[in-house]
């Protein structure tokens, strides 16, 4: 938990750090010579971003927050394990090497990704409206939009690939439903997601994938 003075004094520096970090990452993935190195460093961006996010997290009940974040991490990981090993949830796909250490053919980091996206999307939805129902709709929709863009870069960056080289519709349906469930969990347990860094980090990641998508699919 941090105080308001820390937020005022450090938020802009930390925000600038992440803007530069993702800008450099984007450029590195556009330059052919640098591409292999920056692909291997991709997983570090998610870890550093999550650390930054939680430095600015203002917990009401820190023990409960840790438990809930752990639950979402584990549920997200388990869903992905079932998904990649059966093809039932998302479709037939397999993970590459970019996301790091795997267990049951699934990167451990993918659970952290679910925590990060749910938290940031929920934080943004809270800023957009005070209506609880709309918050529960907006957050998973933001996560879905993020996934639609990211899916276009995943094979290129060796994050994951689809058996038939096309993303099935049920992947997007599953993403929205899982996002809705995880958003509901944060809401049910009153996890405070009023985090001043959440919007910056979500936009940095989204624009990172969006710019790369435009370059590799529309310009190159």
Number of strands: 4
Order of helices and strands: HHHHEEEHHEHH
What is the number of independent domains? 1
Report the average pLDDT across residues.
94
How many helices? The count is: 8
Kindly estimate the percentage of residues that lie in beta strands according to DSSP: under 5%
Radius of gyration: 17 Å
Q: Give me the secondary-structure category.
A: mainly alpha
General shape: globular
* Side-by-side strand order of the widest sheet: 1-4
Fraction of residues in helices?
A: over 70%
Query: Major beta sheet, specifics?
Result: 2 strands, antiparallel
Roughly how many Å apart are the termini?
45 Å
User: Which segments are poorly predicted (pLDDT under 50) over 5 or more consecutive residues?
Assistant: none
Would you write up a description of this structure?
This protein has 220 residues and is mainly α. It has one domain. 70% of the residues lie in helices and 5% in strands. It contains eight helices and four strands. The strands form two sheets. A two-stranded antiparallel ribbon has the order 1-4. It has a two-stranded antiparallel ribbon with strand order 2-3. Helix 1 runs parallel beside helix 8. The longest helix is centred in the N-terminal third of the chain and has 27 residues. The chain is globular and about 45 Å long.
């Amino acid at each position: 938990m941090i105080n308001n003075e820390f937020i005022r004094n450090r938020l802009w520096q930390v925000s600038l750090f992440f803007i530069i970090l993702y800008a450099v990452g984007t450029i590195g993935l556009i330059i052919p010579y640098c591409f292999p190195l920056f692909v291997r460093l991709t997983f570090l961006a998610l870890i550093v971003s999550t650390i930054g996010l939680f430095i600015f997290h203002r917990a009401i009940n820190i023990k409960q927050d840790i438990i809930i974040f752990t639950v979402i991490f584990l549920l997200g990981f388990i869903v992905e394990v079932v998904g990649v090993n059966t093809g039932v949830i998302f479709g037939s796909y397999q993970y590459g090497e970019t996301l790091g250490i795997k267990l049951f053919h699934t990167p451990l980091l993918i659970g952290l990704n679910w925590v990060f996206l749910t938290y940031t999307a929920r934080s943004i939805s809270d800023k957009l409206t005070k209506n609880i129902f709309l918050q529960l709709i907006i957050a998973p929709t933001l996560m879905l939009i993020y996934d639609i863009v990211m899916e276009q870069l995943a094979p290129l960056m060796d994050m994951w690939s689809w058996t038939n080289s096309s993303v099935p519709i049920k992947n997007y349906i599953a993403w929205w439903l899982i996002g809705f469930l995880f958003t509901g969990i944060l809401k049910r347990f009153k996890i405070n997601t009023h985090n001043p860094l959440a919007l910056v980090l979500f936009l940095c990641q989204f624009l990172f994938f969006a710019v790369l998508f435009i370059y590799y699919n529309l310009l190159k």
